[in-house]
Amino acid sequence: MAEQLTELAGDRALLGRTSTAERVSDILRSRIADGYFPPGTRLSEDSIGGALGVSRNTLREAFRLLTHERLLVHELNRGVFVRVLTVEDVEDIYRTRALVECAVVRSLGEPPYGLEGVASAVEDGRRAAADADWKAVGTANIHFHRELVALAGSERTDELMRSVFAELRLAFHVVDDPRRLHEPYIVRNAELLEALRAGKREEAAELLAGYLEDSLERVVDVYLRRVGDDGSAPA
């Protein structure tokens, strides 16, 4: 925890002069998504408030916001913890992803599409794989899907999926073999990109639907082995 808090203290500059709960929650959301605070970690008000230089009230409001986003959970008389997802949570995340992401792709209209961000995420994934940095491959994969969603040009959809992707990272953090989980999607992301470049939005949507089904199966398999279906370690 000491190392995480030292790095967190470096985020003070992001708060500027107007330290708000929203900005604190943005910082903590990013840190949780990046794995600095893994699922099950207790978040100390004193330590984190001191690292960021914010008041207890501001931090509690940030915790409340992140609890509303299902990234944190408050346990009576124990404190605030990074949430450990259940299999039901994971299934709901993927159900939401399939509904939103496939709808975005199908509703793109006539090509060409603004695919620069999507293409950049594909290249980031390839570079990370070449370096055998599988955590970075997972990050690039989430960026790929975030850029797909951004093609809708909807701030509301972006905001909705920001929380969904942050929850997804909680699931990824329990994976014991990130290469096995993420490596197949380097090629599949490139296939999706090429279908969109060719203006084949229906084909791309079908590829995406199958892709998400396969990814869900892999993540659920890991959960049943490592976490249990209710978010507690299996006996």
At a glance:
The protein has 235 residues and is mainly α. The protein has helices at 2-9, 21-33, 45-52, 56-68, 87-106, 116-130, 134-150, 155-172, 178-182, 184-197, 201-226; strands spanning 42-43, 72-75, 79-82. The longest helix is centred in the last third of the chain and has 26 residues, at 201-226.
Break the fold down into its secondary structure elements and pairings.
Elements: H1 2-9, H2 21-33, E1 42-43, H3 45-52, H4 56-68, E2 72-75, E3 79-82, H5 87-106, H6 116-130, H7 134-150, H8 155-172, H9 178-182, H10 184-197, H11 201-226
Antiparallel strand pairs: 1-3, 2-3
Residue stretches low in confidence (pLDDT < 50, at least 5 long) are none
Main beta sheet: 3 strands, antiparallel
Cα-based radius of gyration, to the nearest Å: 19 Å
Strand order across the largest sheet? 1-3-2
β-sheet strand percentage: under 5%
**Terminus-to-terminus distance:** 28 Å
Number of helices: 11
Question: Which structural category fits the helices and strands?
Answer: mainly alpha
Helical content band: 55-70%
Q: Can you write the helix and strand succession as a string?
A: HHEHHEEHHHHHHH
Principal-axis shape = globular
Instruction: Let me know the number of strands.
Output: 3
**Arithmetic mean pLDDT:** 89
